[in-house]
Amino acid sequence: MSSFVIEAAGLTKSFGSAHALAGVDLQVRTGESLAIMGASGSGKTTLLHCLAGITRPDSGTVGFRSGIGLVPVTELGERERSRLRREAFGFVFQQGLLIPELTAVENVALALMLNGMPRATAEQHARGWLAALGLAGLEERRIGQLSGGQAQRVAIARAQVTGATVVFADEPTGALDSQTSADVMGALLHSTTGQGRTLVVVTHDPDVAARCSRVVVMRDGRIVGERQGARSVHPAAAARVEAQAAAAAAGSAGAAGTPEGPRA
Ligand SMILES: Nc1ncnc2c1ncn2[C@@H]1O[C@H](COP(=O)(O)OP(=O)(O)OP(=O)(O)O)[C@@H](O)[C@H]1O
């Protein structure tokens, strides 16, 4: 089985005269934490959105390797891509994904309820994840009643409660002070690569990138550099993901992710 969970080749994307992606080839390894860096406007977010099936590139392909084979993301219709995003991917963005009128537990449970889980069960799973991310006691607070770092932990819980294979994060620590940023990044890494999942993170922050296992650097819509980080791929990663994939293929797809959350 390939050790790549996402394989992208020849991606181009233009917005009018802006060539956001000008030919990107990128393979994301199972269980790695991959940072995408580069100057503002270099195409980082566009690349992340293409990898995650949010944006369709003008040309090129993206494949996602699941337990049942390679899913041709770029060939799927909007409805199928939406389902793939709900079931296989998780998203942690700087803003916009949490619903301010809902409580922390409701925000996390919503991801499960959208996949058909009854509310009571969904909230039970959600509480497990929130506790694992250090938010026990804050479950009933609305998002606006949480600090920026606490809200980002809710977003991390929501991204992973469904058992996402790959978590995509776009500037997940962008609005946070350096200590809170380090704490949130630690929680994000522990709950993704620390449990065999894969993390792809767009960041301007060298401290965030330094904690990832690989860094690619973009300029003018292309990848112009790459380096390995200090942290290696988690040794249990490939086995864990393959076991999850096998379980999904055997018919237990749709089960919630483990609420064990990050390890201390
Ligand atoms: N929806 C859009 N409509 C028009 N132009 C867009 C759109 N999205 C991206 N662009 C343009 O594509 C280029 C790449 O944008 P992108 O957001 O991918 O860069 P980025 O590296 O993530 O930037 P930043 O670090 O500032 O977030 C930029 O020139 C941007 O203005």
UniProtKB/TrEMBL annotation:
Pfam families: ABC_tran. Residues 6-245 form the ABC transporter domain. The keyword Transport applies. Keywords: ATP-binding, Nucleotide-binding, Transport. One of its GO terms (molecular function) is ATP binding. SMART domains: AAA. This is ABC transporter ATP-binding protein. It comes from Agromyces allii. SUPFAM superfamilies: P-loop containing nucleoside triphosphate hydrolases (SSF52540).
